[in-house]
Amino acid sequence: MSRSTAFGVDIGGSGIKGAVVDLEKGDLATERVKYLTPNPSTPELVAAAVARLVKEAGWTGELGATFPAVIKHGVARSAANVDKSWIGTDVDKVLTDTTHCEVTVLNDADAAGIAEARFGAARGVDGVVIMLTFGTGIGSALLLDGRLVPNTELGHLELDGHDAETKASSAAKDNEGLSFKQWAKRVQSYLRHVENLFTPDLFVVGGGVSKHADKWVPLLELSTPVKPAQLLNNAGIVGAAMAAHEKFTE
């Protein structure tokens, strides 16, 4: 592979996905490979799955990895949808040791946000952009004029006495058997709350459920425009690869 590629891994509560990324196009250069997240999702088991992805791809260069937690200097400060033993773990070091690559780790929604800002729905958009990824939980990325404000964790805002993601995530929709119309009402309440707090110029909505954006985004009534993510489930992989490459080439 050329120097304009890097490997991206997207670690989630349910799956671990990886591929080589073409950094000039913001697209996957190889087929995406996915494994189920181990149960329990301990550092040892998750790192082994990531190492397997990298080894099977024959990759030895720059490697970026997303992680569903607040990440400060490579260390996980939370663990909402993975094993609690990750809290306080140096994710960067664990993955570097197991993959034998120089790894850059960042929050999963932050990775998706920078990918959408560079190559997707938020490309060229000035002002405040908030990306929200609806999956096992709700991840968030806050961008100002295309620059990331990391680790916002807006999915954990309190809404009607609950952690917002327990009611408005894609997992909540599936677990409770909600229709898109029923779920959209919850998303509406959540986005209105975020809108009142931040007055953004654009919402970008991602995660697996963004593939069906036509079934629920038109039901939302907000002052802020809402765009479906363009990179869909590849956004985390692309953003992770971008972060790895730009960290080592600055």
Automatic annotation (TrEMBL):
InterPro entries: ATPase_NBD, ROK. Gene3D superfamilies: 3.30.420.40. Pfam families: ROK. Belongs to the ROK (NagC/XylR) family. This is ROK family protein.
